[in-house]
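PROTOCOL LOG
Step 1. Enter all chains and additional molecules of the complex.
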Amino acid sequence: MSDAIRESGFTNEVLGWKAWLPTVDLASATAEQMAVLEESHPQAKTSDYYLTLAHHPDILRQRSQAFNAIMYAPGGLARAERELASTVVSRINRCVYCASVHAQRFEQLAKRNDVIRQIFADPKTAGTTEREKAIVQFSIDLTLEPAALSASHIQVLREHGLDDGQVLDLIHAISIFAWANRLMLNLGEPVFPST
Amino acid sequence: MTSTAPTAVATDLLDSLLDIQPGTPLHAVRHAREKVASATQASQDLFFAPVLENNLSLTERLWVAYYAAYLTPQPLLAAQYLGQLETQGIDKGVRSNIESGALDALDDARLAAILRFTRTLIESPVHGDQQALQALQQQGLSTEEIVVLAQLIAFLSYQVRLAAGLGALRAAGEAR
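Step 2. Run joint prediction.
Step 3. Record the structure below.
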C-alpha cells in the first residue's frame, strides 16, 4: 500500500482476524465443508473467518454467492464505488477489520486513497466529488436508519447520475456489509501487526 | 438436501412483500442481478427450514427474525415473521415481554439469551464481544448453534436494509 493511514482507530494496513469459537478442523472436515471453502474465497482454508462459518456449509455457500455477486459482478456501479460504500458502512459500524480490507480494495481499484482518509476521520463530511458525497451519505443513512429511507433518498442519487441499476448495486453493497460486519465483529477480533 | 435438481422458482419473499411484479421496471432492475436475488431467497429458505438438524428450533429462529424486524423497524418483515409465529400458536405474554424488551421476564432462559444477543447485534454490533458468546454458551448453545444464530441475525440486518432500499426505489417510481 502506498501510504499507511492510521486515523480514529482505523487503518488501511493489512490486519489479521482470529476467531473466538473453535474453527472447523480441515483434517476432519466433511466433503461438503471442503467444497464450500474452496468456492468461497481463495484463502478460505487458512482463514479463521471461513473456518468458523464452515460449521454450517449450506448457509456459508449462499452468503458467499450473494457477497461475490454483489461485490464482483461486471457492469452497473463501478467496483471502486461499491468498495467505497463498504468502507463507509464498516466505518459506521466500527468494524476495523472490514474497513481495512475494503479501504485497500478501493485503493487498488481507484489508485488513490484521499477519500478513505476522509471516511476514517469523519464519514459525515467525506467525499472528494458531489457524486462521492451522495454515495457516502446514502451509505450512512441506510446503515443507521433503514426505517427512514424514502423516495427522496433515491432522487438524490439519480440527480448525481446513478441509474436505477447502479442504485440497486449500491443498496446491495451497503446491505451485504450490514451482514459481513456483524460476522466479523461478533465472532472474533482483528489482529494488529506487531510494530 | 434430498435433491439437487433446480426447483421451480417459488415465491420470492421480497418481491411478494413489496409487490414487485414481473413486467415492471423495478422487477427487471432487481432480476438483472439474479444471482443476488436467488442467493437471498435461498438463504431465506435455509434459515427458515422447518428443521435445522441439531440446531435452533424454527420457533427460536422466527422469534429472532421477528424481534430483529420489530427493532429496526421493518413493518412488512415484522408482520411476515409474526404471521409465521402465529401459525405455531405463540403465547401472548411472551410476545408482549419481547416487544417491551423485558427479556429477563421470559421463562425460557435460553430464548432470553438468544434475544439479548439479537438486540445487541441489531442495535449496536460493535458491542457484541466475547462475553456475549459466553452468555450463549452458558445457556447450552453449541458452536454450530452460535454460528447459525450470528449468521441469522446478520442476514436479517441485510434483509431489512434490502427491503428498505427496494421499498424506496418502488416509492420513487420510474426514473425520468
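Step 4. Note key features.
Chain A touches chain B through 53 residues (CB under 8 Å).
The first strand of chain A starts at residue 6 and ends at 7.
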